[in-house]
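Table S7 (text form). Paired inputs.
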Amino acid sequence: MALFAAEFYRDSSLQALLEGNCPDGFDAEDRNVARQLKALSRAAPIAVRMACELIDTAADTDLEGGLQGELDRLPEIFSTADALEGLSALIEGRRATYSGK
């Protein structure tokens, strides 16, 4: 499964995933691929992009450096309209509708 994740979530797939498309080289009908695409369709695009950036940053450092990078970006992460929408939806018991802002 780790090999699948490494290939599916590679940097070159990011744009397709953010647009809700299946990355090249994968079959959207495959059970694992379909599950990942469904989960991503419910995620905030900003959060997905930031998570990819944070993972790339963490890969170039140790655990402490990776965690510090995430902590340093918390104000940026939580200042988005999508963060407010996600928290509001959670409190209100509804599915979030993200704008990408």
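Next pair, protein 2 of 2.
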Amino acid sequence: MRHMKAVAPQVPVILDAKRGDIGSTAEQYAIEAFERYGADAVTLSPFMGFDSVQPYLKYHGKGAFLLCRTSNPGGDDLQNQRLASVEGQPLLYEHVARLAQGPWNLNGQLGLVVGATYPAEIERVRELAPTLPLLIPGVGAQGGDAVATVRAGLRRVGDDTTGPIIVNSSRAILYASAGDDFAQAARREAERTRDLLNAAAQQAEGAP
């Protein structure tokens, strides 16, 4: 973290901690994320409700990304369940998106985690949460399509472009090579992925 702040202070650091516990414990985790580590944002599980999220929102200028539609196959077990008790009977991930776009987003600090392996769900989340930043893992080793991801998450609505997207690729870059050239291979893969995403973003932002 000190290295990142020293060499790339303009790049936000997201702590992918996936925290999610009761309020008193969440307060301590928030201290860990924002005071001890100095992260700019953290990923959280919303499963225990708003009081498990609220302590992080006390840190103005910091962000929290709520797990919404994750990239792993097991996400279907809960995230695609329909909520009979909520008006309109939305799927659980749709309900999370509405809460994050609406009543939970007290200070404009929330974003959502949506997996690149489900571009149709990314598009649905974007419809429900048009202004929120989306953190999108799953490009690379998990098989997510970078171009489809950008097209689904970054769209023009009228004269406005939807909220920003942050597309993450980890293993495909970290393990681009097992040889002595691992650092150079990682750089090449990172640059290739960056160029692919930038080209797709220019197309999406220029679309009518």
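The chain has a mean pLDDT of 91.
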